[in-house]
Design a protein that fits this description.
The protein has 134 residues and is an alpha/beta fold. The chain contains four helices and five strands; from the N terminus they run βαββαβαβα. 34% of the residues lie in helices and 24% in strands. It has a five-stranded parallel sheet. The longest helix has 16 residues, at 84-99. The protein is globular, with a radius of gyration of 15 Å.
C-alpha cells in the first residue's frame, strides 16, 4: 500500500486543497491530510466547510514534517501548486526536508484554473471584511 502525506496548516481547508487530495488519491492507495501545528502561524481550531475526500485520512502533527513522514511510513509527500511562486516556495521546503534526512519524493500536483486564485489567507481576509473587522 502506497501512502502519501499532504501536509499543510489548512487554515481553512478549501476546495483547492480538496482537489489536490482527490488527484493524489488517483496515484496513491492512502493519502494522509496532515495538519501541521505551526507556531509561526496564528492558531486556529477552524477546519473549514470543505470535507476531505472519502479515502483520505486526517491527522495532526507537531514538529518537523521529515520526522512525521518517517513515523507515518510515508512513500511520498504531496504538494499542491497554484503558480510559479508556489513552486519556488515548495522547492525550498523540499530541499530543507532533504537536508533533514527525508529521502522520499515530493510529488507536485497542479490545481485546475478554477482553484488557482484560492488561498487560505485570502479566505481569512475575506472573512474579516465580511464581519466588518477590517
Amino acid at each position: 500500500m502506497k501512502t502519501a502525506i499532504f501536509p499543510g496548516s489548512f487554515n481553512p481547508f478549501h476546495e483547492g486543497h480538496k482537489e489536490v487530495v482527490e488527484k493524489a488519491l488517483q496515484i496513491f492507495d492512502r493519502v494522509i491530510v496532515a495538519r501541521g501545528i505551526n507556531p509561526a502561524k496564528p492558531p486556529s481550531d477552524k477546519w473549514g466547510a470543505v470535507k476531505i475526500p472519502q479515502g483520505a485520512i486526517y491527522a495532526e502533527f507537531h514538529g518537523l514534517l521529515a520526522n512525521y513522514a518517517k513515523l507515518a511510513n510515508a512513500d511520498a509527500i504531496i504538494k499542491g501548486l497554484r503558480n510559479g511562486a508556489d513552486l519556488e516556495y515548495e522547492a525550498a521546503q523540499q530541499q530543507w526536508n532533504v537536508e533533514l534526512g527525508l529521502t522520499i519524493p515530493t510529488v507536485y500536483i497542479i490545481t485546475s484554473p478554477m482553484h488557482r486564485h484560492i488561498s487560505s489567507s485570502a479566505i481569512r481576509q475575506l472573512e474579516k471584511f465580511r464581519k466588518g473587522k477590517v
